[in-house]
Every structure is written in C-alpha cells, then in structure tokens.
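Intended use. Records like the one below are meant for learning the mapping from a protein sequence to its folded structure. Do not use them to infer anything beyond what is encoded.
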Amino acid sequence: MIFRQLFEPLSSTYTYLLGCEDTGAAVLIDPVVNAIERDLALIAALRLRLEITLDTHIHADHITAARHLKERVGSRIAAPAIDRLPCVDVPVDESRPVAVGSVRLAPLHTPGHTDGHFAYVCGDRVFTGDALLIDGCGRTDFQSGDAAALYRSVREKLFTLPDEHLVYPAHDYQGRRVSSIAQERARNPRLGGERTLDEFRRIMAELKLPYPKFIDYAVPGNRECGVCPQGLPDELQAYCGRMTESRQG
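Structure written out for the chain above:
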C-alpha cells in the first residue's frame, strides 16, 4: 500500500493518502479544501487515481475538499451515513468496509466528539479522526458532543484494538505525527490508564476552550460536502476555509 501523511498548518489537520499499488486507485481521508492543489499534485506524482474521499465527521475547523475534488477529478464522496448528507455517494456504516483497490478500511462508529464520528481501521493502522488524539481527544462541547459517549468509543472500541496498531489522528498541535494503541491506552492523560468516566467528564468540563472560530462557517459548508458558505468574511474568500487557529481538543 502507498501511504502518505499530509499536514495542513492553518487548522493543524492531517490528511491521509492511501493508494493501491496494483490498481492505482486511491482514497484521501479528511481532505482540506485549501490543500487541494497539493493533494492533486502528489496523487499525480505517485501515478494514482483518486477514487474516494472519506471524512471522519462533519468538521468544525476547516472546509472539506470532498465536493471540489469530485468536481475536479470525479472522486466519490464517502461520509458517515448517520449524518444523512444528500451530497454523499458512499454512506458509511460499520457493516460495510470501504474498499479502494486492495485497500480496505473498516469503519468504527466512535461518537462523542460528534454523534456521527467514525474512525477507520486499515491493516495495522487506525485513523482516529478527532475521537482520539495523541495524548488527548477531541472536545465534546458542541455538535452533539457527549463526554460519556466519547469515553465509551475510545475505551470500548479503539482501546480494544491490538497494542501495535498505529494511531493516526486528524489533528496535532505539537508536531507529533503518530502514536500507538498501547501508548494511548497506557498514558493518554484524558482517557488512558485507570481513568474513570467521572474523571473524564470532569476533565472535559474544565477545559474551558474558546468557541471554535470557524465553526459557524465550516459546519454548514461541510453539511454540503464542502461548499463555501454565504457570508464568509472577505479575508477568507480567497481560500474558502483558510482561518486563524481553531483548536479542536
């Protein structure tokens, strides 16, 4: 399998490119609209063909590139079925793997950051979106967030994966690129070790993070698979999603 981890610095978002070496088919996980040219250039350089874009959830900190990539190269849009987005070509649920050539991604419903959040397991890798970050997790105070649901998603689903599975999150704000299930299960300060649900609830309630700066534009735009919302401030128009720092967890 061809694999690349790509970083978008404005929202500190990781996008993942997975390609089938036999067929040239590829999937992008959590593509960002203002990184389209970068992603298409890499796909071309690797002689791949983008078949599907796959979002882990409805993002609040950037606009997905799903719709624009479909318009540019004909890729299908895959996203969680639970969100019932009319623009989605491939509704995702736990019963059906997402297959692109020989690349197979097993969806895991991991609500808590949002109620429609999914992680994706591919071989010995798991793409955890915002449910599980390196030494952290996504926030639970907006978009139907629920601390108890996130606790169960991580402890009862993600932490039951094999120790050696590599954890690839949707964000990191300190330059870290990868972790492992064993590491997060042992030492994640919010969810690891013997952390109880009550302790986790208290941690999340006491974060007191500021209101996400881009959420009022990103969520409606992403409910349409990546449409630039009306009323976007002039300074953001050129990039259709370029924004100042908007930490998610």
